[in-house]
């Protein structure tokens, strides 16, 4: 049996998060990274003897015709897609288009399937949905399809039978990333991946844990942390460097430094093995200290992405991010001292936000000596505490209606807020301009440039991040 994973193009950024002008400029080419979940599953299937191929139509900017051409060459029996809530409608459009010329059964998986499995299967273009983890469900599904077995026996599956949608028993999440093969990067055009902030190519991304132990009320990430050991992570780093010639790795876990003891073990191993690669991480300001940051910088860490979110302590507390503004200031200061670039993520338009708290967020953003920032309009995602409370109070479920095809992203409303959408847009545009056009900031960046290539990169990166010039 042949299967082909397809990552569909042009769906990297959700319009709800930005103003139209920022979205227009920001969307393309800012972050071109592989869809790791599917690359992992491809490795697993190959390990189990399946003939699995991969088309990353996003990085290759493939048209529908080009995708069809590839499929006609590969001739897969099943087409496999990934879906994230924001991109569902885009993904469904692609699936329908592809199936008009290459009509094979479709299996879909990804975070969205866990939230609205039955609703997604109301779309006839999807045949099977893997709900939650794919590690056990996908091979079992393929096996059952091959042998004509009863699909109701496969846990974590949604499918249609005799006109009705069947959701089978929930599959417990017991598989760890240590139980499965490393992602099948050999199926990818590794040299093409890039982000506007990468320092050396080829780049890749890596995940060292599933889930996050914190419980921020706006977040939909699984709270059960399934972490890999430092040894296991370093083994994948070595494979990336030695087998794929990777020069830079973006660790995509939400809180890479959550376990400081493990971080020091990871750094010990990087030192012992003399591994030389650039890397960047995402984490919380309360999960770093001066010593750790110093060691990270010494061992190749070039950038740290902090979820700062708000500059108002009351708002931070309300969203269950119990960290003081001083903790934020210290984390950025220590990173700067260590020589690690800092990237801050901020949100405006949280339910607890007022004009005053938004002003505090924008002032903090300018006060901190950050190298880069991203400012989003807060968008409630399903499966988060904030969204569940909103749903209960308002008796509406926007994302369900969106999944059913009864609403589009343009219908998304922030009607819980005492700040209008136009005002939010104005704050957002102002925030980007104030941050990136500061003379002190521009001067600092220009002074740090060491080559023309770096200048070109910075210029295109700045244009991409700024977006809203007009
Ligand atoms: C890496 C990453 C990215 C990468 C790659 C995205 C991708 N499609 O793989 C990039 C930077 C492109 C990205 C972008 C975005 N992301 Co993102 N991203 C992540 C992150 C940090 C890790 C994903 C990952 O690799 N996990 C590890 C693998 C093993 O898990 P997995 O992907 O869930 O896959 C498992 C199952 O879902 C399932 N599965 C997945 N795909 C498939 C496909 C098939 C056929 C089958 C059978 C099964 C299956 O099996 C896998 C193994 O169990 C997650 C957070 C997280 N920790 O999961 C957010 C996350 C997935 N992203 C999210 C969002 C919102 C976005 C953006 C919309 C953000 C934005 N502002 O634009 C865009 C959308 C882009 C897109 N087209 O997908 C949300 C999705 C929420 C939701 N309800 O769907 C998450 C959960 C973060 C969060 N908590 O909010 N993202
Ligand atoms: S926002 Fe970040 S720290 Fe908070 S629960 Fe989600 S992943 Fe964890």
Record field, number of beta strands: 17
Ligand identities:
cobalamin, iron/sulfur cluster
Number of helices: 18
Helix content: 40-55%
Biggest beta-sheet profile: 7 strands, mixed
Q: What name does CATH use for the topology of the largest domain?
A: pyruvate-formate lyase- activating enzyme
**Into which percentage range does the β-strand content fall?**
15-25%
Mean pLDDT: 92
CATH architecture of the largest domain, please? Answer: Alpha-Beta Horseshoe
What is the terminal separation in angstroms?
A: 53 Å
Number of domains as seen in the coordinates: 2
Instruction: Classify the secondary structure makeup into a structural class.
Output: alpha/beta
Strand order of the largest sheet: 3-1-4-5-6-7-8
Instruction: Note the overall shape.
Output: globular
Please give a structural write-up:
With 470 residues, the protein is of the alpha/beta class. It folds into 2 domains: 2-167, Rossmann fold; 197-380 and 416-436, Alpha-Beta Horseshoe (pyruvate-formate lyase- activating enzyme). Helices cover 41% and strands 17% of the residues. The protein is built from 18 helices and 17 strands. The chain has helices spanning 20-26, 36-47, 64-74, 88-101, 111-115, 117-120, 137-147, 230-244, 260-272, 290-298, 313-318, 325-338, 355-367, 385-394, 398-404, 421-436, 439-448, 452-466, and strands at 2-7, 31-32, 51-56, 78-82, 106-109, 128-130, 157-161, 164-167, 194-195, 203-206, 209-210, 226-227, 248-251, 278-283, 301-309, 341-348, 372-377. The strands form 4 sheets. A 7-stranded mixed β-sheet has the order 3-1-4-5-6-7-8, sandwiched between helices. Strand 16 (341-348), helix 13 and strand 17 form a beta-alpha-beta unit. Helix 8 (230-244) runs parallel beside helix 9 (260-272) and helix 10 (290-298) packs parallel to helix 12. The longest helix has 16 residues, at 421-436. The protein is globular and about 65 Å long. The structure holds cobalamin (B12) and iron/sulfur cluster (SF4).
